[in-house]
Specification:
The complex is a heterodimer of chains A (391) and B (182).
Chain A (H helix, E strand, L loop, with lengths): L1 E7 L2 E7 L10 E10 L1 H7 L10 E2 L4 E8 L12 E4 L2 E2 L5 H4 L13 H8 L5 E2 L16 E4 L7 E2 L6 H4 L5 H10 L8 E5 L3 H12 L4 E6 L2 H9 L3 E4 L5 H8 L7 E4 L12 H11 L8 H9 L5 E4 L12 H6 L3 E4 L4 H13 L11 E4 L3 H9 L8 E4 L1
Parallel strand pairs in A: 11-12, 11-14, 12-13, 14-15, 15-16, 17-18
Antiparallel strand pairs in A: 1-2, 1-4, 3-5, 3-9, 3-18, 5-6, 6-10, 7-8
Chain B lengths: L1 H6 L10 E3 L7 H22 L1 H8 L5 H19 L3 H20 L9 H28 L20 H4 L2 H13 L1
The chains are: A alpha/beta (391), B mainly alpha (182).
Amino acid sequence: MKALVWHGKEDIRCDTVTDPKIEHPRDAIIKVTSCAICGSDLHLFHNFIPAMLPGDIMGHEMMGEVVEVGSGVDGKLKKGDRIVVPFTIICGECDQCKRGNFSVCERTNRNKHIADKVFGHATAGLFGYTHLTGGYPGGQAEYLRVPFADATHIKVPEGLTDEQVLFLGDIFPTGWQAAVQCDIEPTDTVAIWGCGPVGQMAIRSAILLGANQVIAIDRLPERLSMAEAGGATTINFEDESVVERLNELTDGKGPEKCIDCIGTESHVSFGQPDTILDRAKQMMLMENDRPHVLREMIYVCRPGGILSIPGVYGGLADKIPMGQLMNKGLSVRTGQTHVNRWTDELLHYIQEGHIDPSFVITHTVSLKQGPEMYKVFRDKQDSCVKVVLKP
Amino acid sequence: MMMEKVSNIARSQGDPKVISTGVSSFGASDRMARNLGWFSLGLGALEILAPERITRALGMEGQESLVRAYGFREVVAGMLSLSIEKKAGLWSRVAGDGLDIATLMTGLRDDNPKKGNVAMALMMVGGITLLDIATATEVGARHAPQTGSRRTYRDRTGYPKGIAVSRGVAARKKDAPQLAAS
């Protein structure tokens, strides 16, 4: 089969690989009908997240049709079912899964012994996201083996297109969880850094959750225009001071809730001098992340407010203003997304016509064009916001 | 393919394994930038560790500190060229080439017994400068941000029923059971 394979920094290729095989009774194989390139795939593309190996298949946003099931799937899936695959692999039976903390499932990370050493305690297995999270092959491929498939799936109701439901596997619940973690009140201003795909979903989630005002921060006009369409007031950080403008829009008080949809790779520019220092330290292996957005959120957030961090961070971050964070009494909420905790509710909103996540798709191409689209997406060319691949 | 085969140790039996590779996202100019980056690191290391060998070959004894400083410059340019900021790395190499040429010109004195070596070095640096400029230009064009068609997405609301209907729908849903209970 064909698959997009990681060969090194900035080196993704559309390779011919062997087909996946059922290994465990709870496995299933799907024929992938749609998959997407996620912003967090770019962290792997740049080799900022450790433990990728040449030959790893990329992709953690995918859906398809079940073509083979293991003997232990226990009737929960059958051939021909259309499913979205959540990026977090879940057993559905451990203590964490029972609590709905699916992204920290205790059983699915098959490299638990390594992850325990790095994280203190292992997190769930993830598709296509390094050997620290299990080294599972990703879904930017023609076929995918879904481990623990009896639990790791979202069944697609009839009448919905791939484009309407594909993002239930990652960016929609990720933006949603980011907003839910903010405990949004009807009087709240929610400021969202980053108008990429997760940022766009967070904007719409905050609107659905009834925020009084949503403010979106980015520098790319096409992304800001999409944010405005979603109901956000926008700030272009290359044209104006984020802190000054946020204070203006909140009567000098600052936003009550702040969401970081950027994570480890803050835009490096002379206008944000700390990002230059962070980048230099990254190159000298003295720091893993560029936490400019986190610093700015801590500074501008209203005292007593909440910081929600869906953006991916990879390791150690320097110069975090803990004094501001502590004295202002800010709460920090973060984590990989507990996808299946939210999908029933989100599917309901899609079916009811309150949201159609397909608005974010700007490019639909074949798998063969995938390597080129990684470059286009990374370089922000051709007004690219979200790429969907059709294997 | 060697690394891919070795890394198969970390894969399970049912995991897909690479049979043959296809077209890469890493272009020819990216590859040249990487090669120039490694060249910078090698040259930089030589300049830092053995500057006297370079000054002796060029008849420019006494300039060891300057050569060592150039070595650190090369290392920085090399690291940048190997990073995702390769365009900055390549243009810093071009600037460095200019410095190298200016410095070498001072060695083209009639009383320098190694004048011939200096002339040869100048020719080499000149050639490399042209390669640096060509690669920097190609990399710049290939990765130029915000190229291609520029679009606006003002019509992409994402709310099929309109924002007025859907605003707060999830908050209302959460409130409903509490109200019923009270």
